[in-house]
Amino acid sequence: MRRLLLATAVAALVASPALAKPFTWAFGGDVLTLDPHASNNTFTNAFLGNIYETLVRHNERLELEPSLAERWETTSPTTWRFHLRRNVRFHNGESLTAEDVVFSWARVNTPGSLARSNLTNVADIRAVDDFTIEIETRGPFPILLNALTQFYVMDKGWSEASNAAASSNLTAREENAAARSANGTGPFRLQSRQVDGPTVLTAFEGWWDRPKHNLTTVTFQPIRSAATRTAALISGSVDALVELPIQDIPRIESNQNLQVVQGPELRTIYLGFDHFRDELQYSDVRGRNPFKDIRVRRAVYQAIDVETLRRTIMRNNAWIAGSMASPFLNGAPAAEDEAQRRTFPYDPDAARRLLTEAGYPEGFAVSLSCPNDRYVYDERLCVAIVGMLGRVGIRVTPQSETTNVWSRRVNGLDTSFFMLGHAGLPLADTYSTLTEVLNSRSDRTGGLNVGRWSNAEFDALVARVAAEGNEPERRRLIREALMIEKREVAHVPLHQQPIVWAARRGIELAPSPDNRMRLWLVRVP
After folding, report:
1. How many helices (H) and strands (E) does the chain have?
2. What 3-state class would DSSP assign to 221?
3. What is the DSSP code (8-state) at residue 310?
4. CA 449 → CA 86, 280, 304, 306, 310, distances in Å?
5. pLDDT computed for residue 19 by the predictor
6. pLDDT in tens, 143-176
7. What is the rounded CA–CA span in Å between residue 379 and residue 189?
8. What is the distance between the alpha carbons of residues 430 and 146, in angstroms, rounded to a whole number?
9. Integer Cα distance of 46 and 186 in angstroms
10. Could you tell me which of 31, 76, 328, 511 has the fewest CB atoms within 10 Å of its CB?
11. CB neighbour list of residue 389: distance below 8 Å, 6 or more residues apart
């Protein structure tokens, strides 16, 4: 009998559990919150996609595919009907119904939510029956499915019982239970959460989908120091890194036990200006705002040598940007199009002349808000830019801050001059950049328009892009809108940064241009 039991146990072990493995990975910053509606931070939203789910999702090839909704159809130009899967359960065992989707829509519209900026064209979500919902848009909106890829669905009963029926508010530093606990339908459930420490997930056995991963426990560890992250991978303390320091690529590639995965990311890194205030904050200028003058904005543009930044800071691992929308985004002009080329050449002498013409022959002082753990070499880029601007008379004080502090600053509009990055997500479409970053700021648009640039002609074009179903015409409108922003020098695009991941050799990571770690696709040998 003992032999039989042993043989049975061994057979079971070989069949599947022997393939199941723990997995530990690291990134340069922590998840800002576990509340799926409180953040517009790309990394945070990507992490939460392993716990919470949406009606529709992007796969690793950025193709749309069904998720909590198994199928859908349009019943009118502004009404979409979605049919929910009937076998979906939340991590606490409760079944998903249309009531949870309607509740999540209401929660997205509470004051602390930053997720509503992705759904500005949605007028209402209502239940038809327990497993059918209708989404009404404000007008024809052919890319609704893309917009829904960041609409995380929460359990109504759990949220209300946890006093989390409204979104946490990160800007106001108001948290509720959903900020540090979670109950989704996704492939992994939360086991423990430690801010700025390890966050541990376990595979959810009741997941409705067929997992491709072979993971049991997943530990995410934020490691702010680039050198420490690399050392952790080499020592075996972590299995994988999202964001390997570029200077460490040769070192990792020469290690037969490790591998590097890299390629272009959708994200464009750029500088933005305060276009709104009459007097500039964090500046020695009194009674006026230099950045309201296009000559000053152009001076900043022409004082920055983006080729030197690419070569020396980014070590040739970046793609110089001439537009706020990456050419890799759906709907964006092609790389060779005029809309993607730099508007003005690097010319510090021209920058000095422009400052003099604008009434600043001696330049002026201003602070630059910059993260030091969010983008590839963000702080180094800012330091180099400070030096370049100083040579034309703009005396810049860098405000280098961790992501959580910097994000509160930019979301609170407490900045005059800032570095930001945007990847056109969650839509993976240029419309996301147009409506979130460049559209005039309102309660429905411009959630990431930190400088509050506003142009009525541009806004009218964005509204037309949202409703246009003819792809060639839609691309023409997008190009026209981007050219307006370029002519006004509303921002200074720098480059598209690279995706550089690293892992133990043999680990399958399924990387994607949206830089998301889809844990349900990870396999460990």
Report:
1. 15, 17
2. strand
3. I
4. 40, 17, 22, 23, 25
5. 64
6. 999 999 999 999 999 999 999 999 999 989 999 9
7. 34
8. 11
9. 12
10. 76
11. 300, 303, 304, 395, 396
CB contact burial 228-255 (16+ within 10 A = b; e otherwise): ebbebbbeeebbbbbbbbbebbeebeee
Q: How far apart are the two ends of the chain, measured CA to CA in Å? A: 33
- Mean pLDDT, the chain, rounded, equals 93
What are the structure tokens assigned to 402, written together?
């961790």
The DSSP string of 55-77 is SEEE-TTS-EEESSEEEEEEEET
The sign one gets for the Cα dihedral 85, 524, 29, 517 is negative
Rounded Cα gap, residues 498 and 230, in angstroms: 17
Give the list of residues 6+ apart from residue 420 with CB closer than 8 angstroms, or none: 269, 270, 271, 272, 410, 437, 448, 450
Q: How many residues are there in the chain?
A: 525
Token pair 């904005």 is found at 297
Residues 46-105: tens digit of each pLDDT? 999 999 999 999 999 888 999 999 999 999 999 999 999 999 999 999 999 999 999 999
- In this prediction, what percent of the chain has a pLDDT beyond 90? 84
Task: Please tell me the distance from the alpha carbon of residue 35 to that of residue 179, in angstroms, as a whole number.
Answer: 4
Q: Decide if 456 contacts 314 (C-beta within 8 A).
A: no
Strands (E), 28-63: 56-58
Counting other chains too, the contacts that 504-507 makes at CB distance below 8 Å and 24 or more residues apart are 504/233, 504/236, 504/239, 504/240, 504/257, 504/258, 504/259, 505/256, 505/257, 505/258, 505/259, 506/259, 507/23, 507/239, 507/240, 507/259
Percentages helix, strand, coil for the chain (3-state, rounded to 5) are 35, 25, 45
- Whether residue 3 is predicted with pLDDT greater than 50 in this model: the reply is no
Instruction: Give me 521's structure tokens.
Output: 């696709």
Q: Tokens standing for 525?
A: 């040998």
DSSP letter at 521 equals G
Count Cβ atoms below 10 Å from residue 277 Cβ, excluding itself. 16
pTM above 0.85, yes or no: no
Question: How far apart are alpha carbons 444 and 343 in whole angstroms?
Answer: 30
pLDDT-based confidence at residue 1 (cuts at 50, 70, 90): very low
Which pLDDT does position 6 carry in this prediction? 36
**Token representation of residue 421:** 């990055």
Distance, in Å, from the CA atom of 142 to the CA atom of 315, rounded to the nearest integer, reads 40
Q: What distance in Å separates the CA atoms of residue 141 and residue 482, rounded to the nearest whole number?
A: 20
Four-residue CA torsion sign, 94, 97, 103, 105: positive
Name the helix (H) or strand (E) containing 503: strand 491-504
Cα–Cα dist 384/399, whole Å: 14
Q: Mean pLDDT over residues 299-325, rounded?
A: 95
What DSSP character marks residue 332?
A: P
**Contact assessment for residue 322 and residue 340, using Cβ atoms and an 8 Å cutoff:** yes
